[in-house]
Amino acid sequence: MKKLYILFLIFNVTSTYLFSQENLKIPPGTIFLKDNLFIDKVPVNNLMFLEYLTAKHFIRKKGFESFADLHNSTDKKFDRVRLLYPSFLKNLNKKGSLLTRKNYFENYKYKYSPVLNVTKKQAIDYCNWRTEMVLYLWSNENENVNYKINYRLPQESEMILAKEYFSKGNKFKLIDGENPTKFKTMNIEKNFVLYNISEFTMSEIVFGENWKNITPNEFPNDITGFRCVCEIQP
C-alpha cells in the first residue's frame, strides 16, 4: 500500500442528514437500525483501521493514552491532513497465511476490504477511539448536538436483527468470495453489507459464516473482523 494523505478518513463523509423521527444527526458510516441505535453499513476496513493505528501512534508519542486526553490538554485544533503509514498494518500479518502472501494488509487495492487478524481488545479500543473522534469533529463543526454518542461492538441479537430488517427492506447486500482477496468492495455503501467473514460481538459468540466455513475459537485470525454500532444517549 502506498503512503497516502488523508483527513480523518472514516468521518469525511459527514453526517449532513437528520434522522427525522428523533431529529438525530446520523453518525458517520452508519444506518438506522432501531430506537436510538445505528449500525455500521460495512465492517471496519483496512484503511479505517490504519487511520486508528496511526492516530494511536501519534497520541502515544505525545504522552497520552486517549485522543480525549490529548485535545483536552490544548486549545489547538487537530484538523490538518496527516500522513498514514501502511507499515502499521504489517503487525497483522501472520507467517505463511494466505492474506500475508497476497499482501492483503498493505496492498492499496485491499484498502476497503474488512480488516482481519485483530483482537477483540483492539476492536473495543477502536470503538472507544471512534466515539472520541466523532464527538470532537462534531464539536469543531459547531454542530448543535445536545446528546451523546457511544460506539461499541454489536450484540449478537442486533446483528441478527440487522440482517433480517435490511433484507426485508431491500437494503441488504451479501458479498461472498472464496477468500477476502476476492471480495468486491466499494468506498461508499448505501446498504447494510455482510461479507463472508465472522464478526466480533459483545459476547463470546461471533456472528456470521466465514470463507473457511469453521467456527473460530482462537483469536486473532484471518476470518474474524468487526463493525460498530452507535448508541444515541440523551
Automatic annotation (TrEMBL):
Organism: Gillisia mitskevichiae
Gene3D superfamilies: paralog of FGE (formylglycine-generating enzyme)
Name this polypeptide is given: Sulfatase-modifying factor enzyme 1
Domain of life: Bacteria
InterPro entries: CTDL_fold, SUMF_dom, SUMF_sf
Domain Sulfatase-modifying factor enzyme-like stretches: 33-182
Coiled-coil region: none
